[in-house]
Design goal:
Helices cover 80% and strands 0% of the residues. With 94 residues, the chain is an all-alpha fold. It has two domains: 30 residues, no CATH class; 37 residues. It is elongated. It contains four helices and no strands.
Amino acid sequence: MLQRLIGNRSSIPTLKGGLDASSRSVRRIAHRVANAGTPDFAEALDRAQAAGQTGAVDIEAEMVKLADEQLRFEATASLLQKAYQQVRSSIRER
């Protein structure tokens, strides 16, 4: 019974994975924004553009991505909190 509540078949591992993915995404966005003005990063962007890749950092677009990730993280955290609340509730009822 407990395995169904918190095991691999429950939504908890999926939600925890979503929080991890969102956290990694925020770190990548923060890295791009923080390093956008540094000379080494600018050189890497120049090399990427020379190779035909788009490399310019659009701060506004990055902030929109950051806000989107924040909303996704908060929603996932709320769902995870509710899942744990259900587990606690079902344990107390026994």
